[in-house]
Write a structure and sequence with these properties.
The strands form 3 sheets. Strands 1, 2, 3, 4, 5, 10, 12 and 13 form an 8-stranded mixed sheet that branches. The chain has a 3-stranded antiparallel sheet with strand order 9-6-11, with no helix packed on it. Strands 7-8 form a two-stranded antiparallel ribbon. The chain has 6 helices and 13 strands. Helix content is 27%, strand content 25%. A hairpin with a 4-residue loop joins β12 and β13. α2 packs across α4. The radius of gyration is 18 Å and the shape is globular. It has a single domain, classed as Jelly Rolls (Sandwich), CATH 2.60.120.
Length: 268
């Protein structure tokens, strides 16, 4: 435990067996009343191991240097904002490539997992929310954003929020992550500090809202959520958070935001 943080009374929920994800869980995540929700058994450990092996095989001979996610070209919105500074030409190229990225995701993941994890995520959300759940659209260009990225490594201190990164008209967000490979002791550490609270935005850094100074969480209440291989984690991710795990950590993830009209939208 980081010496300047304090243990949490901020709860998370673990769903096991026949326990189902419900609208109340999602509302609590969106409102920050829950730090996280974990769900066991959505995909087996064996299926996750096959997926890692499939991606490693795909990486062979491509300059693979430990970042398994780098062998898939499907991006998040992050580099378009922080590296290409919302260049309209870059966004146009992004939108034109969204269909091919969806096809690539299915090509890589479905043979190993048996189905597209994005379809599984969306089905869980629709069943629990009992309302509209849709792909997010860029607020300026009106075009659909890609969802469903593979990442490796343990993310450093950061926050995620569609209103901050993309200008979405949202009032809550959580991340949804399938753990494809992790140490048995891996945890997501969530600090009860909003990264994008009104009037309290994270300080500008060369990496935007990523790799933030630890002074931002000094003395903060926190929660540690176990994330072993095969688990599905929903994290209230507009709060500052990080992952304690090995560099071989491998995940598949989306962001889910609640728009002010009550719809849930997902993107990466």
């Amino acid at each position: 435990m980081h010496e300047s943080s304090v243990p949490a009374s901020w709860p998370h929920v673990a769903l096991r067996g026949s326990e189902r994800l419900r609208r109340g869980h999602l509302e609590a995540l969106l409102d920050g009343d829950l730090s996280g929700v974990t769900i066991d058994g959505v995909f087996s450990v064996e299926a996750c191991s096959r997926t890692r092996a499939s991606i490693e095989e795909r990486a062979h001979g491509t300059g693979y240097a430990g970042n398994l996610g780098s062998v898939l070209t499907v991006p998040s919105h992050w580099p378009l904002k922080y590296e290409q500074h919302d260049d309209p030409t870059a966004w146009l190229s992004y939108f034109e490539n969204v269909p091919s990225w969806h096809a690539l995701r299915k090509q890589v993941l479905v043979p190993a997992l048996g189905e597209d994890p994005l379809d599984v995520f969306v089905a869980l959300l629709r069943s629990a929310w009992n309302g509209p759940v849709e792909p997010a659209r860029h607020p300026l260009y009106g075009r659909e954003l890609y969802a469903g990225i593979i990442r490796s490594g343990a993310p450093r201190l950061h926050f995620d929020y569609g209103s901050y990164d993309l200008g979405l008209s949202c009032d809550g967000q959580f991340g949804m992550t399938l753990i494809l490979n992790a140490l048995p002791c891996a945890v997501q550490r969530n600090y009860r500090v909003l990264g994008a609270a009104p009037g309290k935005y994270a300080p500008a850094t060369p990496t935007g809202n990523y790799d933030l100074p630890r002074s931002m969480v000094a003395g903060a209440e926190m929660d540690e959520i176990p994330t072993p291989t095969g688990s599905l984690s929903l994290l209230s991710n507009r709060y500052l958070h990080e992952v304690l795990d090995c560099e071989g950590r491998l995940t598949f993830a989306i962001h889910v935001a609640r728009l002010k009209d009550g719809r849930l939208v997902y993107f990466s």
